[in-house]
Amino acid sequence: MTETTTAALQAAIDQALTADYARLADYLSLETVSAQKRGIPETVAFLEQAFSELGAKVTVWRDVAGSNPFVFATLAAGPNGNANKTLLFYNHYDVQPPEPLDEWQTAPFQLTTVDGKYVARGVSDDKGELMARLSAVKALQNSGGLPCNLKFIVEGEEEIGSGHIEPMVRQHAADLAADGLVWETGGKDADENFNVTCGVKGIMSFEISVQTADNDLHSSLAAYADNAAWRLTQALASLRGPDNQVLVDGFYDDVRALTPVEQQAIAALAFNETATRQNFGLKRPLVTTDPVTALVNATTMTINGLSSGYEGDGVKTVLPNFAKAKLDCRLVPNQQPEKMAKLIQGQLDRNGFADVKVTYLLGEKPFRSDLTDPFVQTAVATAKQVYGERVKLVPNAAGTGPQAPFYEALHTPIVAFGATWAGSGPHAPNENVRVADYQQDVLYTAKVLQAFGIS
User: Which DSSP letter does residue 390 get?
Assistant: First the structure.
């Protein structure tokens, strides 16, 4: 790319960002909380309009029973672009609930600029990111045309588990066919390195419950009657050791060994414990001596919440008859969510807790792209043009998303990148992105499209 065309692209990006600020603010003002079934129709209509204004062909898929609508948009390569190459973008239009509201310093659904940051619910996860991508499209259209064909698929259930992604991808595999897939989310880590991430961990969410009597009892009867809360906590303690290792027989059997390329990528990553402790306010020692490898390739079992007996103010001396815990396990290739639930129930039975029941809630498979794939390498090389040498290739994120169904249907490599930073707080109050990172992400996205079109 010549200096002249680089300058022309940057000028087009600056113009697009200025023109698109109002669209970003309007999109973030929509209270699209899927967990509360709020704002879905309005947001779908907004996206139809936004894509149409760019000249895209837009279709809203409502053919997956029980699902929020999927917004699908396509744009053809420009006259000088490569009509034989197609890039697919995945994003979601739903956001987390804004609560706790009293911890927000600004109105959660009003875009505000504070100390060089855009602040609003969804600005990092994931509404802001989609708007940045559309600004990159506009800039390319205004500075020579799109370098390849583009497709966008935007779902409305990511924040509640993407329960309908798999049937949607199966039904529309031909529509979604592409040579590469750019996933939502990504950005800079605590050391300000820009990450190109190539996969996700899987997840298995489940409940464990136990009932020891028909009703709560007077606490004095603990002299002879079992307590559901104690029973549950003892069962939980039998599943994970103090060294953070899961004690379930067979839990680790299917874990795929890291390839030499993956090991090399992990070795190049860093973990800034000081910054991490400051960002999250950590009070306890880390549970691993190798957090970098653990974030990429360690499985986990996490208690998300516990409920039993009286939890209100004051004193109520009861002996709980029922106790329940919500948990999740993060999984790595090639672990299967449904199998994990069965292994956990089997372990409880063997440990003498056959009365403690496991209820499978949801699962998503892990996925990791081939790090040697040309599309992955193009994304990394282009990142170095924009971000310099502070670029890291990350085999997979520690979090989860529905990448596996896309790969199983489309067999295309997946990379993730975006405008977040270590302090973005995507599910927390005061969610934000730095304005400079947002602008830089638009430039990087545009350059990835250009490099992809000629690769």
Answer: -
List the beta strands (DSSP E) in 174-254.
180-183, 194-197, 199-211, 217-218
Q: Which CATH fold topology does 202-255+299-362 show?
A: Alpha-Beta Plaits (3.30.70)
| pLDDT for the residue 279 | 83
128 in Cβ contact with 28 (< 8 Å): yes
Phi, psi of 420 (to 5 degrees): -75, 165
Residues of the chain with CATH 3.40.630.10: 3-198+369-454
The predicted structure's pLDDT at residue 342: 98
| Predicted local confidence at residue 441, as pLDDT | 98
Protein fold of 3-198+369-454: Aminopeptidase (3.40.630)
C-alpha to C-alpha distance for 54 and 70, rounded to whole angstroms: 18
Q: Can you give the pLDDT at residue 4? A: 46
Q: Where in the chain is the domain with CATH 3.30.70.360?
A: 202-255+299-362
Name which of 31, 9, 5, 117 is nearest 445 in CA terms.
Answer: 9
Neighbour-count burial for 364-378, b at 16+ CB within 10 Å, e otherwise: bbbbbbebebebbeb
SS3 56: coil
Supply the DSSP symbol for 95. B
The answer to pTM > 0.85 is yes
Q: Please report the pLDDT score of residue 280 as a whole number.
A: 86
Residues 46 and 434: their CA atoms lie apart, in Å, by 24
For residue 174, the one-letter residue type is A
Q: How far is residue 186 from each of residues 112, 250, 268, 315, 398, measured CA to CA in Å?
A: 21, 33, 18, 47, 12
Give pLDDT < 70 ranges for the chain. 1-4
